[in-house]
Amino acid sequence: MSSSERKTSEAESTYDQADMATKPIGLPCPPKQKSWLTRHFSLLLRRDRQAQKAGQLFSGLLALNVVFLGGAFICSMIFNNVAVTLGDVWILLAALKVLSLLWLLYYVLGTARKPHAVLYRDPHAGPIWVRGSLVLFGSCTICLNVFRMGYDVSHIHCKSEVELVFPVIEIIFMSVQTWVLWRHCKDCVQVQTNFTRCGLMLTLATNLLLWVLAVTNDSMHREIEAELDALMEKFSGNDTNTCMCLNATVCEVFRKGYLMLYPFSTEYCLICCAVLFVMWKNVGRHLTAHSGAHHPNRPPFRLHGAIFGPLLGLLALVAGVCVFVLFQIEASGPSIARQYFTLYYAFYVVVLPAMSLACLAGTAMHGLEERELDTLKNPTRSLDVVLLMGAALGQMGIAYFSIVAIVATQPHELLNQLILAYSLLLILQHITQNLFIIEGLHRRPLWEPALSEDVMGKQGAELPRRGSLRELGQDLRRASRAYIHSYSHLNWKRRMLKEISLFLILCNITLWMMPAFGIHPEFENGLEKDFYGYRTWFTIVNFGLPLGVFYRMHSVGGLVEVYLGA
């Protein structure tokens, strides 16, 4: 080879080596471009999500403006009852009730009957205890309005006949609303979604304003007290200009019935708001075939050998019923003796520490047991936790106000010391019970199979190739039976969880019954009422007590889930 050719070949080899050095080695191939159909489908899904968020935003703003408008009317009535009267607030609420009633009827007769309107139903929404409470408190609220109408009719000689229209509208509205929520609380509507969201938010705002008015409006209570004072002056020989009832016996029935059923109206409005919010969240929601039905292996509610929890809970229930009956008999008289207040608060001082210790022991058992945490996203469970924490603020708020009033006045009397201990123990019991229930709700139930990621990936890969979900359902049932069989023996930790859950269920039923169906010692003992004033303490109690009753009901539902999961 000549020297010139040798130089040329060396130059070429050097150039090739430099070129190879500059080329990237081991880089992945450029990603395959998605097909037109895939890109078009993704765009449609993105637009659907954007439209859903826009509909939720618009309906939420509608509810916010309605609540602000009604709140402005109610505040104006409180602070300037000459320019804005209670009648003006009733007219506004009557208009909102009529609009909500028209939408409820349209939803039942129009939207829900359209083809493919309700393709899915949320199995976790509207459990039986929520719907039962809805019917119970709705019936009590209707009876409350009947008593109110009877009271107004007995004073018709000094009242306007137009006032009878408002209770009639409320009875019709609440009857239709209860029926619609009972039948359609699980619906996941797929048609007319924006209109449905706006209707749900309008109805929710109406119920929220009814609750605010019930909490702040004490006009009926003041009228009853003024009539009783006038009646005492009439017996003493003094004349009075107060509007008197034509039939004293009938008026006494209406008066007692109204005062006893008054807290149920606020409780009913709170439950309706919760159910309507769940329905609003479910509008346009798509459920998978597996989440659209109850799990086939979910166990029924059985005792499973639990002994001490039910016995102690029944003992607390019987003692609570006895204290409740004695206090109610004494409350039917002209005044309540102080020893009955002492008995009432002493019962709470005994029961609340036992419940707190049980909750702490249950939380410790959750930390020791073998069940793993359920980290999957669950909107219903998240809402349960929010409602549980929010409802606990009612009784805790009353307790803190009572603590301030007692410490600032006479903390050394026996009754005041009992009320102080009751308030502190109530706060502690709410905190410990919330920890126990929330920890239990986030544990994977034993009847729910814990599938591994490999199994889930395999099922996800095989699912598009299958013609039906029958094989997948059979696999899940086999896995569920194997999982339950491996933990079929009740060990001491699970047995203790069941005992604690049953004890707390019965105690919460007792503490739900006493404020829900009777006279409220928080308002009748006179200590806080004298310290804060009648109107302020009336608002605090009517704000906190319905939330407390709702908390006890919601706690029972959560404890049943904890019991079944163990």
UniProtKB/TrEMBL annotation:
Catalytic activity: H(+)(in) = H(+)(out)
Source organism phylogeny: Eukaryota, Metazoa, Chordata, Craniata, Vertebrata
Similarity comment: family membership: Belongs to the otopetrin family.
Cross-referenced InterPro entries: Otopetrin (IPR004878)
Subcellular location: Cell membrane
Record-annotated membrane-spanning stretches: 57-83, 89-108, 164-182, 194-214, 260-280, 301-329, 341-364, 385-407, 500-520, 532-551
Gene: Otop3
Superkingdom of source: Eukaryota
Record bears the keyword Glycoprotein: no
Main location: membrane
Topology with respect to the bilayer: Multi-pass membrane protein
Protein name: Proton channel OTOP3 isoform X2
Pfam short name (any one): Otopetrin
Alphabetic keyword roster: Cell membrane, Hydrogen ion transport, Ion channel, Ion transport, Membrane, Transmembrane, Transmembrane helix, Transport
